Amino acid sequence: MILGALEAGGTKMVCAIGDETGKIFEQVSIPTETPEITIPKLIEYFSQKGVEALGIGCFGPIDPDPDSATYGYITSTPKLAWANYNIVKAFEEALGCPVGFDTDVNGSVLGEVTFGQAKNKKCVVYVTIGTGVGAGIYIEGKLLHGMLHPEAGHVMIQKREGDTYKGKCPYHANCLEGHAAGPAIEERWGKKAVELKDNAEVWDLEAYYIAQALSGYVLTLSPDMIILGGGVMHQLQLFPLIRKYVTEILNGYIKTKELADMDNYIVPASLNDDQGIMGCLELARRSTL
Ligand code: ADP
Ligand code: ZN
């Protein structure tokens, strides 16, 4: 099958053509401006390629519920030009093919489960820590939606004593995104995250906050694997620290072979940063079923 994949982000739109095995034939990136400017460029690209289906992994919040009146919309996003925009309809009408639609992070977890290191796992959480924090959740063959879709980047954290930073989330004083996303690191420490590489205190605090959220996901969802991606996770020194704090927080309460093997439980993304776009290929394939 010739499948189209669109990873719709707040700064860029990654478009690819590939197939159901996850093979990517070609890929381009188009800046995200307004729908009026950007959507026609995307349609022009995909309409020349003969795609049999398109999968979209989208920044949100979105409405992924096919039974809802606003299915296919980007809903209350802070990127105002895109708020209440029906992105699925735009492509269905222009391309005349099935369109699969989910959050960007659900796309990423689907890519890892279908083509990457999480094959054959029953429950997988993919967390991105970048400009924001978000989580995609795969449970027994399906992507989790529920009433909307998970917004697990905004779970509450307990502040470390002496941490006086007020947080960057306009909604919550003490959520993970507000304290651990790239912009929060930059505001707290006065430098870009990448420039703080050698400051051990930065990564210890960062790992402590991430570990609190992951421990909550472990207790709530019982995942087989937790995958961490996004720009901030390029700081690979975070991984051993996060594993250490998750182990400390859980404090031996849950005894499984997975938790006994932390190095293979909390892991970096496995598909060379293609997990999102490959997941969109699988979203496209699933839309034809
Ligand atoms: P987005 O979330 O917009 O899709 P990224 O996942 O690349 O994009 O996240 C961007 C954020 O990650 C920025 O806040 C940036 O400071 C931070 N970041 C990017 N690269 C690195 C790095 N190598 N080390 C630490 N932080 C990084
Ligand atoms: Zn928040």
Protein described:
This protein has 289 residues and is of the alpha/beta class. It folds into two domains: 3-106 and 273-286, 2-Layer Sandwich (Nucleotidyltransferase, domain 5); 117-268, 2-Layer Sandwich (Nucleotidyltransferase, domain 5), CATH 3.30.420.40. It is built from eight helices and twelve strands. The protein has helices at 35-47, 87-95, 104-115, 176-180, 182-189, 200-221, 238-250, 275-287, and strands at residues 3-8, 12-18, 24-31, 53-58, 73-74, 85-86, 99-103, 123-129, 133-139, 142-143, 225-229, 266-268. The strands form three sheets. The protein has a five-stranded mixed β-sheet. Strands 10-9-8-11-12 form a five-stranded mixed β-sheet, sandwiched between helices. The longest helix has 22 residues, at 200-221. It is globular, with a radius of gyration of 19 Å. It starts with a strand and ends with a helix. 44% of the residues are buried. The mean pLDDT is 97. Zinc ion is lined by residues 154, 169, 171-172, 175, 177-178.
Report mean pLDDT, rounded to a whole number: 97
Q: Which fold does the CATH topology of the largest domain refer to?
A: Nucleotidyltransferase, domain 5
Number of strands: 12
Succession of helices and strands? EEEHEEEHEHEEEHHHEHEH
CA gyration radius, whole angstroms:
19 Å
Distance between the termini: 13 Å
Basic shape: globular
Strand content: 15-25%
| Strand order, sheet with most strands | 3-2-1-4-7
**Small molecules bound:** adenosine-5'-diphosphate, zinc ion
The CATH homologous superfamily name of the largest domain equals ATPase, nucleotide binding domain
